[in-house]
Amino acid sequence: MRNKLIIFLLLLNLIATSTLCYTLYTNDSEARLAAEVKEDYEKFKSNMYQGLGMLMSGQSQLSANQQRLNIDILRIHHFVEPHDEKFYEGCPECQLEHPEKLEKMKNNITSSEEGNEWTF
């Protein structure tokens, strides 16, 4: 009888130890996996925001460069083909040479221009 009790207790100890080890291993690996996934997600999110920010700042810089290029093209056009008798509203050189026409356009109700000053 005593041998049967010892064998029963040893088997019970083996089963309890196996169950406990399996439970601890699965809980630990799931927690580790969840932490890795969360860390990867946070890294991905920060990289995505950084990339989108760079893209948006690049787009705004392209827009500013395009506006500057348009003004410079008008300036070159003014010197290649001088238009003394013509006045182009968007040409900065015409605005500098003929401020009286610009003032006249400012007071004109049908003018599409607001008469903003050019800054160089």
Short key terms for the protein model shown above:
3 helices, 0% strand, 120 residues, mainly alpha
User: H/E series, N to C?
Assistant: HHH
Our measurement of the CA-to-CA distance between the termini, rounded to an integer number of angstroms, reads 105 Å
> What is the mean predicted local confidence, pLDDT?
78
Main sheet? none
Task: Provide the gyration radius in Å.
Answer: 39 Å
Q: What coarse outline follows from CA principal-axis ratios?
A: rod-shaped
- Please provide the count of β strands: 0
* Number of helical stretches of at least 4 residues: 3
Low-confidence stretches: none
Structure summary:
By secondary structure, this protein is mainly α. It has 3 helices and no strands.
Task: Explain what you see.
The protein is mostly helical and 120 residues long. It has a domain at 2-62. Helix content is 78%, strand content 0%. It has three helices and no strands. It has helices at residues 2-80, 92-97, 99-107. The longest helix has 79 residues, at 2-80. The chain is rod-shaped, with a radius of gyration of 39 Å. 3% of the residues are buried. The mean pLDDT is 78.
